[in-house]
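ARCHIVE CARD
CATEGORY: sequence design from structure
SOURCE FIELD: tokenized fold
FIELD CONTENT:
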């Protein structure tokens, strides 16, 4: 099977990996545009904190994530998956009561004893992060070394008849130049900081060995280095970083800690998450374009769910799976 993958962010990386695993002749083209994957924190979490429930098919998605990252590590000889527990601030007694009720249904959390007047936390297992800023360039280099990568903008009005199948992994760029019938894909804008602490003698109170979630979050990525994020904004799509958002994130962290964090911003980045209106991924045949498939909508929990859906898309292409209704691109036709 000859497969062309357009775009090599998270989606194109995961799909091209599956295609090569299956022995297909796979070629990847990427334009080098600003991508969501290049700024993403790469976190995954089997719990949703809003309603304190396990996320969609958590164990199956985690299993696929682990198997995929193990394989990338074997091929590229580098670690990408970093399991970490998540310490979640329990805002009040009512939330703690819901947390304790849900422990019976969720293997990832255990009960806490809520103490009035103190900061209370629950712990989540099964979380962590994937280092996308290392994985994506290393995979590109690997593809390039075997003559499977090309850096250029693919014009989707071009015919691509020399390929058996085209898989469109262009993220939000798919909106601007639809390859088939336009789909309802939305942009959610996020700002994220990389923050550091330069003194060995006075340790920062920000945890180095877990993800701290206080509505916003800190993710340790190296000694004395964290990501601090993130914002979520609709109806705005520029890439200008705003000092107000940086101040807001720092303030949120300072009010969480008992002593000053002593962290300075090293990098302030902005990205646009590709999100579908029902927050499910978009995985299946491209409406109105025979031979084309879509792998998109990874802006909601993309790191966790992406590996399983990359496999499912390959199953669809092979004819081993129907397109599941939940992820069918047809549901998003305008
Ligand atoms: C601030 C921020 C934090 C995030 N944190 C997390 C997180 O912690 N966990 C999580 O699961 N998700 C997170 N996300 C979401 C996640 O980053 C995205 O869902 C995911 O990276 C999207 O990947 P993608 O490959 O679909 O799109 P993109 O990463 O945007 O990649 C699209 C690629 O297509 C290429 N392209 C576009 N048009 C063309 C063309 N015509 N020809 C050739 N190539 C083309 C571009 O160059 C680009 O490389 C975050 C996002 C943001 C913005």
């Amino acid at each position: 099977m000859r497969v062309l993958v357009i775009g090599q962010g998270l989606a194109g990386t995961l799909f091209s990996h599956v295609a090569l695993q299956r022995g297909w002749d796979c070629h990847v083209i990427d334009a080098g545009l600003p991508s969501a994957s290049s700024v993403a924190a790469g976190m995954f979490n089997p719990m949703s904190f809003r309603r304190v429930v396990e996320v969609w098919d958590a164990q199956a998605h985690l299993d696929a994530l682990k198997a995929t990252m193990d394989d990338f590590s074997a091929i590229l000889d580098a670690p990408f998956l970093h399991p970490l527990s998540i310490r979640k601030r329990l805002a009040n007694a009512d939330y703690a009561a819901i947390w304790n009720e849900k422990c019976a249904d969720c293997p990832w959390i255990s009960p806490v004893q809520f103490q009035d007047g103190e900061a209370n936390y629950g712990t989540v297992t099964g979380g962590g992060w994937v280092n996308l800023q290392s994985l994506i360039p290393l995979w590109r280099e690997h593809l390039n070394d075997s003559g499977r990568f090309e850096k250029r903008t693919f014009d989707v009005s071009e015919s691509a008849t020399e390929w058996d199948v085209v898989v469109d992994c262009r993220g939000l760029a798919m909106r601007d130049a639809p390859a088939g019938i336009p789909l309802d894909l939305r942009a959610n804008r996020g700002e994220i900081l990389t923050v550091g602490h330069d003194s060995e003698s006075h340790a920062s109170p920000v945890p180095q060995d877990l993800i701290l979630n206080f509505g916003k979050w800190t993710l340790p990525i190296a000694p004395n280095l964290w990501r601090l994020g993130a914002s979520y904004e609709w109806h705005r799509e520029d890439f200008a970083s705003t000092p107000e958002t940086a101040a807001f994130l720092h303030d949120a962290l300072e009010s969480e800690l008992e002593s000053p964090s002593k962290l300075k911003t090293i990098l302030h980045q902005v990205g646009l998450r590709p999100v579908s209106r029902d927050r499910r991924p978009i995985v299946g045949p491209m409406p109105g374009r025979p031979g084309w498939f879509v792998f998109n909508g990874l802006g909601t929990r993309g790191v966790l769910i992406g590996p399983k859906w990359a496999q499912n898309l390959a199953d669809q292409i092979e004819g081993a799976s129907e397109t599941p209704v939940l992820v069918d691109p047809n549901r998003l036709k305008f």
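CARD ANNOTATION: The CA atoms of residues 29 and 150 lie 5 Å apart. The pocket of flavin-adenine dinucleotide is lined by residues 6-12, 29-33, 35-37, 39-43, 153-154, 169-171, 173, 190, 192, 229-230, 271, 273-274, 296, 298-299, 301-304 (CB under 6 Å).
SHELF: design records, drawer C
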